[in-house]
Write a structure and sequence with these properties.
Radius of gyration: 24 Å
Number of helices: 24
Distance between the termini: 30 Å
Largest sheet: 6 strands, mixed
CATH architecture of the largest domain: 2-Layer Sandwich
Strand order of the largest sheet: 1-2-6-3-5-4
Structural class: alpha+beta
Strand content: 5-15%
CATH superfamily of the largest domain: Metalloenzyme, LuxS/M16 peptidase-like
Helix content: 40-55%
Number of domains: 2
Number of strands: 11
Length: about 500
């Protein structure tokens, strides 16, 4: 599950803000959760697919007059060969730049107020030629009501959203429509955004923890590492062109590869009607982009390998990673992965007792990241130089016992399911964020997977978890990476064999 993929990012929060991982906090608050079997809660969204393939997903809640309108696109690093690496992210940066509709609006204002210098200097006569196609741009009179917006790029989804009050639903839908269908890709702004992204790369590279995650991902997905690197590289960003942006647009920014997600104080039928009016003329792509440009097949890890990454950190951070299940190939294992990861994260689990309560580790976590294109399973350990070898021996001793009948109790199994479901219910309290959850699941798994998510979690059995452990973890080739300072390594003397449990 995406929210259980904590690893180095939450480890970073432990070391920099002294806040422990969210999963552990939640677990402590719910250790008394009932183990009784319960009926799974359905996520009460409704959906409809337009004739052009655009999926509309609506989760109504009239408790407050706030709405979020999001466009999710099945794009991200899993679509990127080396020459396009990071350009899904760069495209995201360009999405909120003025569209052709915004240019028409400015030109009309210039004409209205007699500013002929602006009108002629901005070549407005060319822009207004699109007026018949785009339609009235008067909605931009309310643009200041749409100033809460953002976008994110991940491996398997790019999303864009506006949060506003419910009367401005039509304006938010129009804004997204015009941005996605009529971008300008202004060359001057494009060059500026390239430097902004380079700045993000600089910030990441100045953080020691970046190298832990990057090393693990590059080694896990050794043949196609760009497919798991949403940020991209300096070279790929600096050599990006607006022509490449148009390539991405023509491949992926099409209605049959996108979903409109609307949450909050809305009427579903009204959203469906508005969406059809606004997006109905958006021409679908004749060939599904994933049929024309199929996902790569990540080859299995040939043998277990260990890597030492020396960076100026105080403690020792260790990641051990495996190839996990893929949506569409082994869905049952993805549910088992989520449940088992949560069992292990509980403070009173055998896993935590052996590693944290014993004093061998400051923190330990296990997570699986739900993906269509080979999601990773990662065990994360925080320890000290003097205890690092013993901690690694302990963690591999635990791994060897994962499929034993007494490794967790029936009560722990049912409690994990209850807490996972409760956390999702809690997340729904903030629908502006939950829109992103819906967009993520739609893109990576398909919305029907998420519709049955809680039901399938509830059905997960001990046998399902054992099958998951045997197929993906126990005895399988894996990658071990330690982030450690040079001085600490001189004391710890960690070896590659230590990191892979030899």
């Amino acid at each position: 599950m995406k929210k259980l993929f904590l690893n180095s990012l939450l480890i970073l929060s432990i070391l920099t803000t002294v806040n422990f991982a969210q999963t552990a906090k939640t677990a402590q608050a719910n250790t008394q959760a009932t183990a009784k079997t319960q009926t799974a809660n359905e996520v009460p969204f409704v959906n409809k697919v337009l004739p052009n393939g655009l999926e509309i997903i609506v989760l109504p809640d009239a408790s407050v007059p706030i709405i979020t309108v999001e466009m999710a696109v099945r794009n991200g690093s899993f679509t990127e060969p080396p020459e396009l690496n990071g350009l899904s992210h760069l495209y995201e940066h360009m999405f909120f730049k003025p569209s052709q509709a915004a240019l028409i609006y400015r030109c009309e204002l210039a004409l209205q107020y007699g500013n002929t210098n602006y009108y002629n200097g901005k070549q407005c006569s060319e822009s207004v030629k699109l007026k018949q196609q785009i339609g009235s741009v008067a909605y931009l009179n309310n643009e200041d009501q749409l100033n809460v917006y953002n976008g994110t790029t991940r491996e398997e989804v790019v999303n864009y959203y506006y949060t506003t009050t419910s009367p401005f639903l039509p304006d938010a839908i129009r804004q997204i429509n015009d941005s996605i269908r009529y971008p300008t890709f202004d060359k001057e702004e494009f060059e500026q955004e390239k430097q902004v992204v380079i700045g993000e790369i600089d910030r990441n590279e100045s953080n020691p923890f970046y190298y832990l995650n990057r090393t693990l991902m590059d080694k896990l997905y050794y043949k196609y590492p760009t497919r798991k690197n949403a940020l991209g590289t300096r070279e790929s960003i600096l050599t990006a062109t607006t022509s490449k942006m148009r390539t991405i647009q023509s491949r992926y920014y099409v209605p049959n590869n996108a979903a409109l997600v609307v949450t909050g104080d809305v009427n579903a039928e009204e959203v469906f009607k508005l969406a059809e009016q606004v997006f109905g003329s958006w021409k679908r792509r004749e060939v599904d982009p994933f049929k024309e440009f199929p996902l790569v097949e990540h080859p299995p890890i040939v043998k277990s390998e260990g890597y030492i990454v020396e960076q100026p950190v105080q403690n020792v951070l260790i990641n051990i990673g495996w190839h996990g299940p893929s949506i569409g190939k082994d869905d049952a294992a993805t549910y088992a992965a989520d449940v088992f990861s949560y069992i292990l994260s509980q403070p009173n689990s055998r896993f935590q007792r052996a590693l944290v309560d014993s004093g061998l580790a400051v923190g330990a976590d296990t997570g699986y990241y739900t993906q269509r294109n080979v999601g990773p399973i990662i065990v994360t350990l925080i320890t000290t130089p003097d205890k690092s070898k013993a901690a690694l021996k302990a963690i591999y001793a635990e791994l060897s016992q994962f499929d034993k009948p007494n490794y967790f109790t029936d009560e722990e199994l049912e409690s994990a399911k209850t807490i996972l479901e409760a956390r999702d219910l809690f997340d729904r309290e903030k629908l502006s964020d939950y829109a992103h959850t819906l967009g993520f699941w739609w893109s990576s798994t398909g919305i029907d997977y998420f519709r049955g998510y809680h039901k399938n979690l509830r059905a997960t059995s001990r046998a399902d978890i054992n099958r998951y452990v045997d197929n993906y973890i126990r005895g399988k080739s894996h990658i071990g990476v330690a982030l450690i300072s040079a001085n600490a390594q001189a004391q710890a003397k960690l070896t590659q064999e230590d990191l892979i449990g030899k």
